[in-house]
Amino acid sequence: MLSKEQNETLTQVGPNKPMGKLLRRYWHPIAASSEVEKIGTTKRVKLLGENLVLYRDKSNNLGLVGDRCAHRGVSLEYGFPTECGIRCQYHGWLYDQTGQCVEQPNEPENSTFKNKINIGGYPVKELGGLVFAYLGPAPAPELPKWDLFVRDNVVRTIGYAVIPCNWVQIMENSLDPTHLEWLHGHYFEHVFEQQGRPQDEWKITKHHLKIGFDEFEWGIIKRRVLEGQTEENEDWAVGHPIVFPSMLRVGDSGAHSFQIRVPIDDENTLHFWYTCFVPKEGVQAPEKYPISVYECPIKDENGKFVVDYIDGQDMMAWITQGSVADRTTERLGTSDRGIIMYRQMLQRELKKIENGEDPKCVIRDPEVNNNIQLPQEEDKFSEGGLLSGVAKDWNTRYAPNLDEIIEICKGGKVTSNL
Ligand code: FES
Ligand SMILES: [Fe+2]
Description:
By secondary structure, the protein is α+β, with helices and mostly antiparallel strands. It folds into 2 domains: 27-134, 3-layer Sandwich (Rieske Iron-sulfur Protein); 147-410, Naphthalene 1,2-dioxygenase Alpha Subunit, Chain A, domain 1, CATH 3.90.380. Helices cover 21% and strands 25% of the residues. A hairpin with a 2-residue loop joins β9 (124-127) and β10. The longest helix has 18 residues, at 337-354. It starts with a helix and ends in an 8-residue tail after the last helix. It binds FE2/S2 (inorganic) cluster and fe (ii) ion. The site of fe (ii) ion has 5 residues, from α5. Fe (ii) ion binds next to α5.
């Protein structure tokens, strides 16, 4: 249980809030590269409570500046990118990548008025099919090259959803191993029963005999021993990590996945499911195969949560805790010790910032930032590649080319024009 003040410190992401300052020390993905591939494209984004416009200028560079023109406040989402910046559609003021106004076409030629105008601009970089932004103090650290972003011979998909709740309750779900046997096990069986589907289609209802959490260089490794398993099984021996502060790595030998939680503001989170499907041994994935980008539905046409897939179940659990979970009334038990460990880690890292130090996972050394390997079990629940077999019960069922991806991974041909 937390006090109201502790809960606010944990969850508030604005520029002057402690957690907002911590989160600003990291790069966050704000779009798929394919969304802003075309020169002249603009996209309105909100990150850490700040309204921004992402654009691709005529020199093929991405820019990210404040959403509102300083003149009379129209949204630059409708601005038009130039050779080196974005011009307001209303009266033509031009802003460079730092948000500095560099032209005011209807002011006297020698006016210095424009020099006083800056709407803010932030660095952006692309990696692995995603566009990342950094809103923190200069100099920006390295954009981490986590293994899945740079791995060869995989087929990638990017699912996303805008989740109407605070990012911390999504992360806490990732430090909560036992929900697997309930939310994705017994509850899944109930959903199958309601749908008239055979319940033995899905079986991860095994009881947790043991759970464990270990801090490592990049975050926390989560481990479990299920009924019928021992500590020799990879679910315990290897486990899988949350990468500090806002990413989960899951999957198995068939598909590896990052779940990236991007705080939009205190009450909304942009969620990415970034998946790399692994072709079977000896099979080569086609080079330059496009990354499909798809939205994962939260609710159906009747306004009910879509709970017949794993990620839909998770979203239901995250969102129904409230837009910001009220931790003043929670009752944590021994099975919640991963959540407590994560909260303590956040508090510890907040202190580092206060002391002028870099927090955990801020990488400055380019030598370190080279295909950073993250541990993850290949043999999940001792089923030998469960995820690849259940891609249709996972968010990837919304990938328009899922059937083709499975074919490719088995060694089949590409037939679509994607
Ligand atoms: S409102 Fe943007 S130039 Fe006038
Ligand atoms: Fe889950």
